[in-house]
Structures are given as C-alpha cells and as structure tokens.
Amino acid sequence: MSLNDTPSGERIHIGFFGRRNAGKSSLVNKITNQDLAVVSDTKGTTTDPVTKAMELLPLGPVVIIDTPGFDDEGELGEKRISKTRLILNRVDVAVLVVDLVEGLGKTEEQLIGLFDEKRIPYIVAYNKADLKSTIPAVKDNEIYVSSLTGKNIDELKEMIGRLGSHKNEGDPLISDLISAGDTVILVIPIDSSAPKGRIILPQQQVLREVLDSNAAAYIAQPEELGAVIANLKTKPKLVVTDSQAFGKVSKIVPEDILLTSFSILMARHKGFLRSAVRGVKAIDTIKDGDKVLISEGCTHHRQCEDIGTYKLPKWLGEYTGAQINIDTTSGLSFAEDLSEYKMIIHCGACMLNDREVMYRAKCAEDAGIPMTNYGTAIAHMHGILRRSLEVFPDILSELDR
C-alpha cells in the first residue's frame, strides 16, 4: 500500500486553528503547495472545515484540516465554532496560527486551553513575519512564519513532523497474531449490502497485513468456507469473518481453529476492544422502552439490509424480546447528550482515527453509558463471543469480571 493509498483513519490529522484573518488558509496553502483553501482579505472566508488527505514530508500520509475562525460572530458563527470544536476531537497535532501584528489574545488563550484539556500537542505559528523588522525570541513550541514569503515554512513542517512522530500507532490488525507461513481464511459475504466491485476497507487492510506477514490468505464466501477448509492440507491458523456472517460461519469452522471478525480486529486496532467487551453485557439488561444508539463512522449509502439501520435493530429485538427505540448517527456526527441511552453500539470505526474513537469512548464512559461495537455485540448475541476472543487471551478475561 503506497502512502497515497493510506486510509484517512490511519493518517495523522493536523488541524490549523486561530482567529479570522490570521492567515490560516494562506499558511495551509503554503505548507501543502496547493490552493487547498480559499484565501481572501474578507473575514470569515473559511465557513466550514476544509479537509485534504495528502503526503507531508517528512511526516508522510496526513490529513490537513483548515478550520473557520474561532472568533466568528452571530448565530452562524457559533455553529462554525461548534464544528471547529468537533475537529479538536480528531486532531493529532494542532497549529495555532496567530497574526503577529495582533499578537496573542483571548481567542488564542481559549484555544490553547482546549489543546491542553484534550492533550493535543500544538505549535504556535506567528504568521505575517514579513511585516516585522525585529522578531522577538520564541519558546520551543513557537515559530515565526510568513505565508507570503515562505519564511520558515520548512522549519514549521519539521516541527509538525516531530510532534506527529510521537503519535501512538496502536495495535496491529492481525500481524501480531500470525507468523510467516501461516494460513488465514477471510470470509467475505457478497450480499445485497456489499459494495459493487470491491471489498470494504477493514477487509482490505486485514488482507494486506496477512500478505505483509508472509502468510497465505484464502478468501471465501460463507457457502464455500467448508470446502475451503476441507481442501487445505494443514488447518488454518485463523478464520476472520464479516460479523454479519458470525452465526453461520461459527457452525462451519471447527472448534480447534481460532475464529474472530474484521470488526473485532478493528476495535482492538483502534484501542477500544477491551471496553467494548465490558460494555456488551448491557445488551442482556435491555427492556421495553430503552433507547440504544447505533453509531457508524462512515457515511455510505444505506442499502435495504444495512447492518446499522436494519440488521442490528432486528437482532437486538430478537435477542432481547424487547421493544427498543433505536437512534442512529453516521460520519463525524455523534450524539451530544448520551444520558438518554441504555447503551451505544459503534461500528469498527475504520474511517475514524483513533483519537476520535477514544473521544467517543470517553464521552460514553463519562456519561456512565456502556459502549460496545458491532462485532462484539453480534458475537455476544450469537453466543460465540468467548470463542471470538480466544485469539486475545488478555481481553478474554474481561468476560469473567
């Protein structure tokens, strides 16, 4: 996989923040060598966050986010500021752009407070250095730049690179579970909800890690799985299935072969599988009238048998026997008030970076609301959660607590 093919959820997210007319968009354009953002002398030109996935040397694959001015005014301005606050939940490195002539003020202090609160490493970039004949001394996380002349742009990139290099990459998807020479079977159903002509991102990523581990991958639909296993001279090390086929696949795969799902692997990769296993027990306490939030990180076109809006609500109803009220969110939307929900069931979050995922998990924890994920919930409702976690002995122990 080339750097340009790196999924957005795996890239380092770099956000540019500041007041209107501080030169955020001009600085973004200079750093990226692209006209990524519209530039104007008129305040408030950037009305919505502008996002671009790209390569930024020396860091590599990143997502650059240009945000509206944090000092925007009026009702519409408040909405723009609200969007900027949401961006903070997925930023790995923040660049606070300050108009050197104006200097630090209340808006910048507010942003720095938010960076500290959310533990986001940040750089203060004093822009418009070309307007000053004398440049004062700076702290370690400060730099004077000019988006007009290009002064210190390369140095700013280096600073961003140093901060971004400390980002925790998290657990691998599958490479630490297999060895060179192992065989892995990936079960990928092709049904009405499968995208035409391609396989979905978690399946691509797991397949790539298998190949990078010098292991062999066999891919089958559930209907062919039995024949694939029977034709192998040696049993596979692991079978990974789409969670929607968990029930059918678990009956085909012999008990002495490890079995898990793409969604469970992704939840571990994003850092919230352990809490998802703890949270899944809440399904057993659902009763009539309870509200459940089903949240997805992507915004795909929903099919008639979509997992989030159709299959999961159906399985929940059948498993609990209760009349449940279901709310759904998708993309970067996430319910602001979680107190009304009995529990949250989240997707594997392949389209979200780990900071966004952990923010959502922390929101649920702070509200005292159990949160699990699709694969864990489906395995639990099919009575095979313990089996699906045998590949993770350290996490399996959560079931007995």
Mass-distribution shape: globular
Number of strands: 14
CATH architecture of the largest domain: 3-Layer(aba) Sandwich
Portion of residues in helices? Answer: 25-40%
Strands of the widest sheet, in order across it, are 2-3-1-4-5-6
Helix segment count?
14
Structural class: alpha/beta
**Residue share in β-strands:** 15-25%
Topology:
Layout: E1 12-18, H1 24-32, E2 50-56, E3 60-66, H2 74-88, E4 93-99, H3 106-117, E5 122-127, E6 142-144, H4 153-164, E7 183-187, H5 201-212, E8 216-220, H6 222-231, E9 238-241, H7 246-252, E10 258-261, H8 262-270, H9 273-279, E11 291-295, H10 307-320, E12 325-329, E13 343-346, H11 354-367, E14 371-373, H12 374-381, H13 385-388, H14 393-396
Molecular structure report:
The chain has 401 residues and is α/β, with parallel strands linked by helices. The mean pLDDT is 88. It has 14 helices and 14 strands. Strand 11, helix 10 (307-320) and strand 12 (325-329) form a beta-alpha-beta unit. It has helices at 24-32, 74-88, 106-117, 153-164, 201-212, 222-231, 246-252, 262-270, 273-279, 307-320, 354-367, 374-381, 385-388, 393-396, and strands spanning 12-18, 50-56, 60-66, 93-99, 122-127, 142-144, 183-187, 216-220, 238-241, 258-261, 291-295, 325-329, 343-346, 371-373. It folds into 3 domains: 3-164, Rossmann fold; 175-266, Rossmann fold (3-Layer(aba) Sandwich), CATH 3.40.50; 273-381, Rossmann fold (3-Layer(aba) Sandwich). The strands form 3 sheets. A 6-stranded mixed β-sheet has the order 2-3-1-4-5-6, with helices on both faces. It is 34% helix and 18% strand.
